[in-house]
């Protein structure tokens, strides 16, 4: 894995009680398109993209890169989790040289309200702790995004600051395996 450090990518599929976190495959393409075309999913993250544009632009195997986990329920993709390095130019940092690992999450609306995002993110944070022990993880979300805010709190993220970005108030928080019970 180049972006996140020395950990091998992809890891072996990670199994939780109900889910599998795994690398993306060609069979996930339709679910990727659903995610990016959904007005509900896009409500607080820049909006939905036109489906016909996605049908043209999305590659045969979408999202195959270090840090991107497809979340699989009974053999079908229900969402994705990303761990990427946060751009130094953006507001919100906890390290002097920036480049923190940042958690992102997007699930299909039909999978909301079941605790799947909590279960999958907790497993991704566990994996990250093993791969890069002691490194903090950051997260930012619009304060208006109630579901994302509740999820961040459940996972053990704590507020660092709030700021304006993309014309909205953003919540910026940090999580650390050293201070979190997991
Ligand atoms: C953010 C997002 C992933 C949260 O999804 P979610 O399903 O609400 O999150 P959780 O997995 O934590 O599920 C929590 C809900 O499941 C319920 N639940 C049901 N069964 C459960 C179980 N077995 N375990 C835990 N929670 C359970 C909880 O009570 C809670 O319900 P509530 O929302 O009515 O309080 C989702 O809304 C999303 O994809 N949004 C669009 C993309 C986005 O904005 N991403 C954030 C960018 S920063």
From TrEMBL:
InterPro entries, sorted: Acyl_CoA_acyltransferase, GNAT_dom, N-acetyltransferase
N-acetyltransferase domain: residues covered: 19-181
Database matches in SUPFAM superfamilies: Acyl-CoA N-acyltransferases (Nat)
Species classification: Bacteria, Bacillati, Actinomycetota, Actinomycetes, Kitasatosporales
UniProt entry tagged with the keyword Transferase: yes
EC number: 2.3.-.-
Keyword tags: Acyltransferase, Transferase
TM ranges: none
Organism per entry: Streptomyces yanii
Top-level taxon: Bacteria
UniProt keyword Acyltransferase present: yes
Protein name, entry field: GNAT family N-acetyltransferase
Molecular-function GO term, any one: acyltransferase activity
């Amino acid at each position: 894995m180049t972006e996140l450090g020395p950990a091998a990518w992809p890891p072996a599929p990670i199994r939780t009680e109900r889910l599998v976190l795994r690398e993306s495959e060609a069979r996930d393409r339709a679910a990727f398109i659903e995610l990016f075309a959904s007005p509900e999913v896009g409500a607080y993250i820049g909006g939905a993209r036109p489906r016909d544009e996605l049908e043209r632009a999305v590659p045969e195997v979408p999202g195959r890169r270090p840090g991107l986990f497809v979340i699989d329920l009974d053999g079908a993709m229900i969402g994705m989790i990303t761990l990427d390095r946060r751009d130094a130019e953006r507001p919100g940092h906890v390290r002097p040289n920036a480049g923190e690992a940042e958690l992102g999450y997007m699930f299909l609306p039909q999978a909301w309200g079941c605790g799947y995002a909590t279960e999958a993110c907790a497993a991704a944070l566990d994996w990250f702790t093993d791969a890069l022990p002691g490194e903090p993880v950051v997260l930012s979300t619009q304060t208006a995004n109630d579901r994302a805010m509740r999820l961040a709190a459940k996972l053990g993220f704590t507020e660092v600051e709030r700021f304006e970005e993309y014309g909205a108030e953003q919540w910026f928080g940090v999580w650390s395996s050293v201070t979190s019970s997991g």
